[in-house]
Amino acid sequence: MNIRRILIAGTSVLIAIAMIIILITTWNISMKALHESSKKSFLQATNTIAEGIATSVRFKKLKAVEGKLTPFIEENQDALAGVSIYLKDGQHLYDVPGQSRITAEQISADLKSTQILSETDEQLSLVTALRSGKKATLVGYMYTNWQFSFVQQVGSDMLQQAFIIGSLVLIGTLLLMFLFIRSLLGVPFDNFIGLTRKLSSGDCNLAQRITYHSNNEFGQLAQYINKFIATLETSINTIHSSSTKVAGIANDLESNVENLENQVSHQRTEIKDSVHLGENLQQSVEEVKLKVETASSSLEEAVSSAQTGQQQLNQAVDQNLELAENTRKSFQVADELSTQTEKVTTILEIIRNIADQTNLLALNAAIEAARAGENGRGFAVVADEVRTLAEKTSTSTDQVEEILVHLRRSSTELTKTMKQGLEHSDACVENLQLTSSQIHEVITKIEYTNTLNSDVVETNHNQYGSMTGLIDKLGILDEQIDEMFSESQNMTNYSKALRNNAGQMHSNLAVFNLNK
């Protein structure tokens, strides 16, 4: 039901009740006052006629009594119902025909003036002492019966007139109240309802304001609602700008993560090639060891085997140099991977700050909606959605950061391992060069072949163990780079999810028509 109608109806009922109470109270007071005034008038008239007939009663002049009473009775015929005259001994002297009499017992023995025998709303019975002469000697009594019928008639007329006047006043008051309430509540209600209808119909243009200016409570309410809408507009504009920045950063992050994934994939391929090369080198070293051992069976075979071993060692040196160079490149790539990981960590810190700021802004918008009560319920839903998106963004950022920490740790271990591999490769090259020199000495100094051959066999044993360790480390590095590649793919998926969330936030904020 319309609030204005309820207010007008309630006010009308209250005013009607108040008017009826005032009318009844005023009528009762007027009737009492009129009754008392009539009573005083009856007493005064009774005393006057009593003084006029006292001498005639003393001398029992009935005609004189009747002559004085007749004009009095005619003058007060509407109020005076009857008159009876008694002597002081109780003997009846005169009365109006049809008038009821009283007994002597009803008259007080010490009556000095006028006594009220009975009094009701309809009649008043009086007994007056009749005194005559200078000594005011008691000569008799006069009984009068007065009627209040004319008072009741006047009261009825007054009540009717008061009812007519009160009805006119009530109608005028209700009309003025209707116009006043319509002027006081109609304009602000129309402004409030118009703005809320536009906002609830989908036209969420936050540039709209309530155009009602007054110093009353509705004017203050309009100012506070306008301030709330302005604050909400500023907050949502800030969130909208932040979401745009988050979307841009998410795109940059996705691009960087994809580049990182490509680099890790390339590094993975190179490491697998290094593992294959190390296995080949191990096989070569094993062949050298077999040939050196065979050379000890005969001097000629030793020389021939030494020459063949020298050639193979030269090839092994070249291969080890190439392996060392590849290992050095892998070390540089791993170091670049660590640098890129730190950059991505910095970008994630920026994203986390933006997500925290977005969450704070959404919390402020929810507080402002809660202050608005029912009118702010729609804004509270939007603020809650924005806060949910901010929490998802923060969660995704934490997951990406955790992956990056693991990736950085793996990259550090990879760099350390590759550095060790590089040192082993250099040591292997030096050993191979030394072995080549020894074989050259074997060729030039055949007499020392057996002694040097023993040294070569021992050296080859050490070299084979080093190559085995190098291949094992390269295998571990291969497993770690596989894990790194898998984590880089997960990071790519997380960055895409972050970009999608930022796009969804941007779409949700578009409902507020912020460009209007």
From TrEMBL:
The protein, known as: Methyl-accepting chemotaxis protein PctC
Gene (UniProt): pctC_2
Segments traversing the membrane: 6-30, 162-181
GO process annotations (BP): chemotaxis; signal transduction
Chain ranges of the HAMP domain: 183-237
Species assigned in the record: Vibrio aerogenes CECT 7868
Family: Belongs to the methyl-accepting chemotaxis (MCP) protein family.
Pfam families documented for this protein: HAMP, MCPsignal
PROSITE patterns: CHEMOTAXIS_TRANSDUC_2, HAMP
Top-level division of the source organism's lineage: Bacteria
Keywords of this entry: Cell membrane, Chemotaxis, Membrane, Methylation, Transducer, Transmembrane, Transmembrane helix
Subcellular location: Cell membrane
Domain Methyl-accepting transducer stretches: 242-463
Bilayer topology term: Multi-pass membrane protein
